[in-house]
Amino acid sequence: MSEPRRNVELKATDPDPARSLSICLEMGAEDRGILVQRDTYFRVPDGRLKLREETPGGAALIQYHRADEAIARESRYRIAPVEQAAAVREALDAALGTLVVVDKERRLLLWEGVRIHLDTVRGLGSFLELEGVAAPGSDLTQERATVAQLSEALGLDATRILSDSYSDRLLAAAEGGPPAAARASDGGAPGADDLVAAAPGADDLVAAARGAMERAYAPYSRFRVGVALRAPDGSVHVGANVENAAYPLGNCAEASAIGALIAAGQSAIAEAAVIGDGEEPCVPCGGCRQRLREFMPLDATVHLLADKGAHATMTLEELLPRSFGPEYLP
Fold first, then answer.
1. At what angle do helices 253-263 and 203-213 cross, to 10 degrees?
2. Sheet of 301-306, strands arranged across
3. Which residue, 92, 119, 156, 273, could crosslink 205 as a Cys pair with Cβ 3.0–4.6 Å?
4. 15 vs 44 pLDDT, higher one
5. In 114-244, which ranges are E strands?
6. Which of 158, 184, 169 is nearest to 302 (CA)?
7. Domains of the chain by range and CATH?
8. In this structure, are residues 95 and 24 in contact, taking their beta carbons and an 8 Å threshold?
9. Following CA atoms 249, 254, 257, 262 in sequence, which dihedral angle do they give, to the nearest 10 degrees?
10. Catalytic residues
11. Partners of 9 in beta bridges
């Protein structure tokens, strides 16, 4: 059997695809245009197996192994072109069973031997993927260095880099999402024991909150805050703090995000992420905790983050114990 091909891969959430595209083009990347892809994953005992149907292009069967780590990681893969995609899909479904189907629109760019994928994945959102294509016999040093250079230029940090795949995320969403890794237990500000890594299913929400924070208007306090709210239908709505020279007229990020959610026709919050400048996780003020209480179940998850990377996860009830809500009104 021939040796598999190899890539060095890095996948991240992408809250601002237009910015990512602009950076890549400024670096001299070659824009190869839009690809529409459908990946059908099949149940296999080892690694992953998918049938990719691509327009423009064709179809291919792809088998690969890749570690689930939130770093630039090696992927070993084999590709077999397929002439009769529908027949092969039906045969594999009958023999192995279909695991999940991933539909996405991919903008492909090429730079210094790296394939840059700006992906919009149905049901998940926007992502960015870097694949440093390895030459036969490479020790992967050059590929890792080139991917690292691009990653730095794009501003990718630990809160955006993913360990899992689109297929994993869609499966998790279908099962109701992954449980929070941990929750703060004292009902107050998060301490060192409450700090946890972001749950994989929250990465898109965290990235959206970070993108909002970077656009905050905070010329007086210089403390930027971004909030992202996930509605029950999966849509994400963001807001940032907006200060005013007449200080009491400033708007908290939570209030901005709730306004965006309501304006979009939603009336409930399933999950929230709050991120602010500084070293410690950003917590909503008392008024904003009550604002969230109006639209959010007490057992819903709130991710509290710092721009520097610290992260705590709590329920709304832990943030606002013994609270007053709409159910107390006649």
1. 110
2. 236-240, 225-230, 271-276, 301-306, 311-315
3. 273
4. 44
5. 114-121, 125-133, 225-230, 236-240
6. 184
7. 5-171 (2.40.320.10), 180-328 (3.40.140.10)
8. no
9. -90
10. 254
11. 73, 131
Residue 300 tokens, joined: 């819903």
**Would you mind telling me the total number of residues written for the chain in this entry?**
330
CB atoms within 10 A of CB 269: 24
> CA 307 to CA 275: how far, in whole Å?
6
pLDDT tens readout for residues 116-169:
999 998 888 889 999 999 999 999 999 999 999 999 999 998 888 998 899 988
- The H-or-E segment that residue 176 falls in is none
Q: What is the pLDDT of residues 262-277, one digit of tens each?
A: 998 899 999 999 999 8
User: What is the rounded CA–CA span in Å between residue 20 and residue 38?
Assistant: 23
- 320 CB-contact burial (10 Å; exposed 0-12 / middle 13-18 / buried 19+): buried
User: Exposed, middle or buried, 26 (CB in 10 Å: 0-12/13-18/19+)?
Assistant: exposed
The radius of gyration of the chain from alpha carbons, rounded to an integer in Å, stands at: 22
Question: What span, in angstroms and rounded, lies between the C-alpha atoms of 2 and 324?
Answer: 66
Distances (CA, A) of 193 to 150, 275, 308: 34, 19, 17
The predicted structure's pLDDT at residue 207: 85
Question: Can you read off the two tokens belonging to residue 320?
Answer: 């606002």
Residue 172, SS3 per DSSP? helix
Partner residues linked to 240 by β-bridges: 226
Do residues 160 and 13 lie in contact, with contact meaning Cβ atoms separated by under 8 Å? yes
Buried b (16+ CB within 10 A) or exposed e, 194-214: bbbebbbbbbbbbbbbbbbbb
What is the pTM (predicted TM-score) of this model?
0.57
Residue 45: asked if its preceding bond is cis (omega within 30°), the reply is no
Helix ranges, 202-252 (H) = 203-213
Pairwise CA distance, residues 41 & 100, whole Å: 5
Beta-carbon contacts of 19 under 8 Å, excluding residues fewer than 6 positions away, are none
| Inter-residue contact 53 to 106 (CB < 8 Å) | no
Residue 25's Cβ-side half-sphere holds a number of Cα atoms within 13 Å equal to 11
